[in-house]
Sequence to fold (535 residues):
Amino acid sequence: MAWLFLKVLLVGVSFLGCLYPLVDFCFNGETRAPKPNFVIILADDMGWGDLGANWAETKDTANLDQMAAEGMRFVDFHAAASTCSPSRAALLTGRLGLRNGVTHNFAVTSVGGLPLNETTLAEVLQQAGYVTGMIGKWHLGHHSSYHPNFRGFDYYFGIPYSHDMGCTDSPGYDLPPCPACPRGEGPSRSPDRDCYTDVALPLYENLRIVEQPVNLSGLAHRYAEKATQFIQRASASGRPFLLYVGLAHMHVPLTRTQLSADPQGRAPYAAGLREMDGLVGQIKDGADRTAKGNTFLWFTGDNGPWAQKCELAGSVGPFTGSWQVPRGGSPAKQTTWEGGHRVPAVAYWPGRVPGNVTSAALLSVLDIFPTVVALAGASLPRGRHFDGLDASDVLFGGSQTGHRVLFHPNSGAAGEYGALQTVRLERYKAFYVTGGARACDGSVGPARSHEPPLIFNLEDDVTEAVPLDTGSAEYQRVLPQVREVLANVLHDIAGDNVSRADYTQDPAAAPCCDPHQTACRCQTASQPMFPGAGA
Ligand SMILES: *[C@@H]1O[C@H](CO)[C@@H](O)[C@H](O)[C@H]1NC(C)=O
Ligand SMILES: *[C@@H]1O[C@H](CO)[C@@H](O)[C@H](O)[C@H]1NC(C)=O
Ligand SMILES: *[C@@H]1O[C@H](CO)[C@@H](O)[C@H](O)[C@H]1NC(C)=O
Ligand SMILES: *[C@@H]1O[C@H](CO)[C@@H](O)[C@H](O)[C@H]1NC(C)=O
Fold:
């Protein structure tokens, strides 16, 4: 318990104005140009085609489209994995799962999380004098010191994992509701019973569960409110801030209030997209009102649409993974087809990032870490290698040079978790293993190995329909380059300091507000935003 107390104390102390940031801000801060603020918004399961600015069929993202018109839109931007936990771990560490240890999702009962000797973006910025906040879905471990408050975030408000990992009273589409079973009764979620004994979905504020189950209907509104408050209070403190928002949208379940709120009575997915877009607009307005010109807002997604959810899944746009489709399964979330990891991305920073620009530079969520660290004037953590690059020249300098090479790890659809089975090299993409995730029709596309690899030319074939003929000069020219970059990265990883995540499970690790209640049901008062800071 002593360590917990100490850490709580430290979390508190860092808010006592000029105590913790004394050296950096109070003495030096005034003589330097102010450090920029960062707002990073990560959508969940949003398809590339779900951004209207990307895909004309989508008409539900007016705020994001406006942000793209006022900023830079990236059309060849990739999540670092095709599923939730690895994608988020890569964002916060700038490293692929083979290095940071997070190769698949954590569970409600997971004991571990993002390995503690990985350094998060928030930890680096905290050290550089930033106030740091996280709002929304974490999914990098919630038990003991894996909680966001111990991973560099001064403030946390949100849910510890996906909102289909536990019941709620207002579940919306595609989630069982959770009227609690009378005590001692079970089994949980059995089809002939209409009650639920598992742990309900909790809502945290800092270390405390403030509501269990969380009321999903009001969640978007509360996120907007907390984000705006955080921005205001952090600005008022005189220190720069980092706010990382992990949206619940567009992951199922989609809440039912979205529908009633939609005047045109649109389908649930489109209504959800509008709700998400409204939330992003509110956060952007909050940042503009408080700190316009000094706040860099970066919006992107964690992976492609969850096709298995049928009409409750988003759009891959043109990235249809056509080679895979007749072989079964979906070529979206959990796969290394473009639909799995090519995500919407918009950078907005009035006065710094030019407006109304579309960039075709090959970039990745992995780049957020080194870019933000550089802009904050901080240094990368030592003793490890990074997969991302500092994208400042693309953002500010009009450069189109992003990565020459990206690696897309397996995220569940084919073979070993985290393995680098797919290589992007300039306009080419090579698959050593293919596979399809569970599709709407229930089919899966079994893993298939390819040696030599299938190679697609994405410039001519965005749908990944027809691989290059292995006898062609083009294939013969590209193949040795693919082999070389893959061998290089594997060699580099073998010589790097890599971490290993603890994926063991223990029912006692499930977050539970009140163990005496079935489903751990409880409700407690909200906490002050910055504990220890007084009002
Ligand atoms: C959930 O929140 C919505 C919207 O804020 C509200 O109308 C509803 O009464 C709440 N439900 C519960 C069970 O508290
Ligand atoms: C944005 O750019 C497009 C094409 O480059 C142009 O047609 C449009 O007028 C521009 N919009 C604004 C608001 O500048
Ligand atoms: C790994 O960590 C050790 C000890 O901190 C350090 O000396 C070494 O340089 C690191 N290796 C790499 C590849 O950074
Ligand atoms: C994390 O700790 C393990 C075990 O001590 C070590 O092997 C590894 O190199 C560390 N990772 C980093 C990034 O330092």
